[in-house]
Design goal:
Blueprint: E1 7-9, E2 15-17, H1 22-33, H2 36-51, E3 56-60, E4 64-68, E5 72-78, E6 83-87, E7 110-114, H3 122-143
Antiparallel strand pairs: 1-2, 3-4, 4-5, 5-6, 6-7
Length: 155
Amino acid sequence: MKKVTATLKKSDSSEEKVGDSPSRLIDARIEELSDWRGEMLARVRTLIRQAEPDVVEEWKWSGVPVWEHAGIICTGETYKSVVKLTFAKGASLEDPSGLFNSSLDGNTRRAIDFREGDEIDEEALKALIRGAVALNTSKRTAARPAGSGKKPSSA
């Protein structure tokens, strides 16, 4: 069977090939940025992988890197003046180091805006990643009662 590869044009002039792995697409985004934003995205990606070695990388919404484990952990969006790491369930996470500095009014998400020259509190960020994974896995486990897959018997 012959593999068909289509090319989709994106608004930021980069090209995305259907069939490329999300990890390769994220690599390409980092390389394409070729400035502090690429370096920052690469750095947070490394920290996410260190905090959760079983993380799954995805590429969603026409060009947004997404990191998942039992659900979305966070997304990594790049803008002109910030690299935004948005935690899908950030409002439910403990943030004793005060890393969240964006989207603070929402009921669910919280974000960290990294600007050029910002230092990353690596241990605090890893703790947030681990907390997001724990939240995802606890909710998934709670949603599946013991013996799931079987309907409760009716008396």
